[in-house]
Amino acid sequence: MYGTSVADAERAVRAAERRKLPVPAEVYEARRLRTAVYDTARTPDPERPALPATAAEAATVIQQHAEALRLADVTRRAADLFADEADQRFVDEARAAVPKWIAALGKEFATLVGVVAKAAAKLPEDVSLIDPKRLNWNDPAITTAYTRAEGAVVQLEQLVSDRAAIAGVAGSDGGKDNALFSVAALPDPTVQAVMDQGWQDLHPVIAQWRDLHQQPVARWVYLARQQALTLGLATPGQVRERACCVQLWRDATHARAAAQTLRGAHEHVTQVLSA
Fold this sequence. Notes:
With 275 residues, this protein is mainly α. It contains 10 helices and 2 strands, in the order αααααβαααβαα. It has a two-stranded antiparallel ribbon. Helix 4 packs across helix 8. The model has no long low-confidence stretch (mean pLDDT 93).
């Protein structure tokens, strides 16, 4: 009965509770309903009564116990008929709450990114140097900035993890770089932006983000500093949309490069973006 979708719904609710987000009454009622169905479907057999003292009583006692056994069996079978529907109701109610939960997380996300951005102003410009082993710990300004950034990053990482748990009930984010697209979005490509080779400013950001996967503080400092992507938590559907946006930039850029003339490039790009 505890299928993957139900497990995802439970993880989403627990993450919302952990973040102290308001959980709709409908979600809790659906959870209680599912539990009631689940418990009823596992109604135990009644205990066997003691063997009566006389033969005259035996038939009656056995018949009564048989009726009790039949009732327990029929009850379990009847509850099983409602199990899938109860599961789905809980999943549906939890899924319906996802957009509001993620929107609520977005406020804290923006605040934490602001803390990182403020600290970043006093950290080395070269993000590869934003490493505990390479920082100048004798400089109090750098020490304070790094400590503040690190504290905010720890909270950001947990927040993003909770966002993933919440979003899971609405379906997998999927796609390459989904961790990035869960917190950042590229601008939509336009014909003029592609013709101006806008992708040349965008793809290095994604590449740098990948390179910093083992340096969370440096990675978040980099994201807070860059201007190409817009930071913001995504709903599950938006993650896929953001991933598709990257592919659209690539396809349009390839179409531009493949053309023999400027006019042809403009036409090819227009065709790709209007498809």
